[in-house]
Design goal:
Elements lengths: L9 E4 L4 E8 L4 E10 L2 E5 L2 E6 L5 E8 L1 E7 L4 E8 L3 H5 L1 E9 L6 H8 L3 H41 L2
Antiparallel strand pairs: 1-9, 2-8, 3-4, 3-7, 3-9, 5-6, 5-8
Helix pairs in contact: 2-3
């Protein structure tokens, strides 16, 4: 493949006719994905796949058939597990195929070069904006974790009250 993939991109063997990957993502988060499918012994030999991306409710956010490379982008409308599934035309094709998937969310999905050009920002200003975005994501995740912890504590207290002698 002639594409420069980031170090964090996933690369996996298909093995089965359909292979899915999931990521838990908070609502109002930008998601950008790029994928490529190719023969496992020859990365220059592209292999067409069907791809479907779904939200936690099962609604289809992106679907294409017969692509060997592509990309998708969306902003989440709910919290939960978002799923990308790749399907080969048959099991033999699947067993001889690999997928590369670069799945970015939030600050990592933002095109900071475009932001810098649009807002006429210096390199330092752009880096500060990126850091601010990272801090906002961490803060939102902490609030989400606090909410989940409170929910679990309430469940535990209710359970303990029922089990108490």
């Amino acid at each position: 493949m002639h594409h420069a993939w980031p170090v964090g991109a996933l690369e996996f063997d298909m093995l089965f006719q359909t292979k899915c990957v999931m990521e838990e993502i908070n609502r109002n988060t930008l998601v950008v994905g790029e994928f490529a499918s190719y023969h496992k012994d020859n990365s220059a030999q592209m292999v067409p796949m069907d791809i479907k991306v779904e939200d936690p409710s099962g609604s289809v956010l992106y679907e294409q058939k017969g692509l060997s490379t592509g990309s998708f982008a969306f902003t989440t409308k709910e919290d939960g597990d978002f799923k990308a599934c790749f399907t080969a035309k048959d099991i033999t094709t699947a067993q001889n195929s690999k997928i590369k998937l670069d799945w970015k969310t939030g600050v990592a999905a933002t095109d900071w070069d475009a932001v810098a050009k649009k807002d006429h920002l210096s390199e330092m200003q752009t880096e500060l904006k990126r850091l601010e975005g990272t801090i906002r994501e961490i803060h939102a995740e902490m609030i989400s974790m606090r909410s989940r912890e409170e929910e679990m504590r309430n469940i535990n207290e209710a359970t303990n009250a029922r089990v108490a002698w």
